[in-house]
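Retro notes (design track)

What went well: tokenization of the new backbones is finally stable.
What didn't: we kept losing track of which sequence belonged to which structure.
Fix going forward: every design gets posted as structure first, then sequence, in one message. First example under the new rule, 372 residues:
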């Protein structure tokens, strides 16, 4: 079996976690602060707050920014559900703007067209580790006085115009699920340069407690969105290895790119436009138009039958069952996102992959093409 993903864990991470276990301080301990400080330094932001997941981080941002029923937040229809759910948690309404088919990120021109008097924010997603076009998005936000939220959960280490992903918005969130660039098992981080916003999010993640209040003094309704020290120790060591981790992922991605160019030229692979530096999260390709939809689904099943990890990344959000009922969209509303969703699939991508593994993956794709 060639797995779809596998975390890059070494003896250093294991030793750090065991040390926390032996210390007896499993939560609200020193590892949290160490991880937060290291993360803030790495991304160049003033405040970093460790949380229980990227989703929790996004929710903290929407809550702390005061989003409420009647507000609209413009976001991408081609993303993981968390980037919409964090808007819905606050009773606000997600408004979709179609994607750029070349980058798979939200199209700034479509953001402009989606602005109404009720718009409060733009939530931009750095899909598959490529930052959104923040220069243009920031211009739209400035023109219409909109907040900018970055969902950088897939883009740790990526850059746009030599500036780190997660450093463009009012606040940003990262996720550390096991298939991400670094992992804490489950966990996330929220970033901001705003002192008051950071203080609010810090309180909200800890059941509404304030730093200057008593342990059981709750000043507002909050959540248990804390990260435990075990997870933070794992994340801190992972972050200290980030340069090597990203290089390994880039090298593996480049081997795939070469194989697709040589043997599967009709497939579309992820590109890196000028001025961008992708941080490889997953390896996604798009089947040719004649295989979109059911053909792509058959390819996924074929690879799975050969013990090759393969999955559909992503279905469109506006056609998800719970959002169809809520937002009343229909097929055809966002053609670029829908075309991408009908053609995209992810293949094995992790540090353990050998060139032979990758050649085997491509060989079975070729086999499907030749006999379909």
């Amino acid at each position: 079996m060639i797995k779809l993903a596998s975390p890059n864990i070494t003896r250093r991470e294991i030793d750090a976690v065991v040390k926390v276990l032996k210390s007896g301080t499993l939560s609200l301990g020193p590892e949290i602060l160490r991880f937060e400080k290291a993360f803030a330094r790495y991304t160049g932001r003033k405040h970093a707050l460790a949380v229980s997941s990227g989703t929790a981080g996004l929710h903290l941002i929407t809550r702390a920014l005061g989003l409420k029923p009647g507000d609209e937040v413009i976001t991408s229809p081609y993303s993981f559900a968390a980037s919409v759910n964090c808007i819905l948690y606050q009773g606000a309404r997600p408004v979709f703007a179609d994607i750029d088919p070349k980058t798979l990120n939200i199209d700034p021109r479509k953001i402009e067209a989606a602005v109404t008097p009720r718009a409060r924010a733009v939530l931009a997603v750095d899909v598959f580790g490529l930052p959104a076009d923040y220069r243009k998005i920031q211009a739209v936000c400035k023109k219409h006085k909109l907040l900018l939220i970055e969902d950088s959960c897939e883009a740790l280490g990526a850059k746009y115009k030599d500036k780190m992903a997660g450093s463009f918005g009012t606040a940003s969130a990262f996720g550390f699920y096991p298939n991400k660039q670094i992992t804490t098992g489950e966990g996330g981080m929220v970033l901001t340069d705003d002192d008051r916003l950071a203080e609010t999010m810090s309180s909200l993640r800890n059941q509404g407690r304030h730093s200057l209040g008593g342990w059981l003094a709750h000043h507002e309704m909050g959540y248990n969105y804390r990260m435990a020290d075990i997870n933070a120790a794992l994340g801190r060591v992972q972050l200290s290895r980030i340069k090597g981790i990203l290089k390994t992922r880039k090298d593996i991605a480049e081997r795939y790119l070469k194989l697709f160019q040589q043997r599967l030229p009709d497939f579309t692979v992820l590109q890196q436009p000028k001025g961008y530096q992708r941080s490889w999260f997953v390896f996604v390709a798009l089947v040719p138009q004649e295989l979109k939809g059911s053909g792509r689904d058959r390819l996924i099943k074929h690879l799975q039958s050969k013990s090759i990890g393969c999955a559909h990344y992503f279905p469109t959000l506006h056609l998800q069952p719970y959002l169809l009922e809520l937002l009343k969209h229909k097929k055809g509303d966002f053609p670029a996102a829908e075309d991408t969703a009908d053609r995209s699939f992810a293949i094995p991508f992790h540090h353990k992959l050998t060139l032979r593994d990758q050649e085997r993956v491509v060989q079975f794709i070729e086999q499907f093409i030749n006999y379909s």
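Added context from the reviewer: The chain has two domains: 11-240, 242-371.
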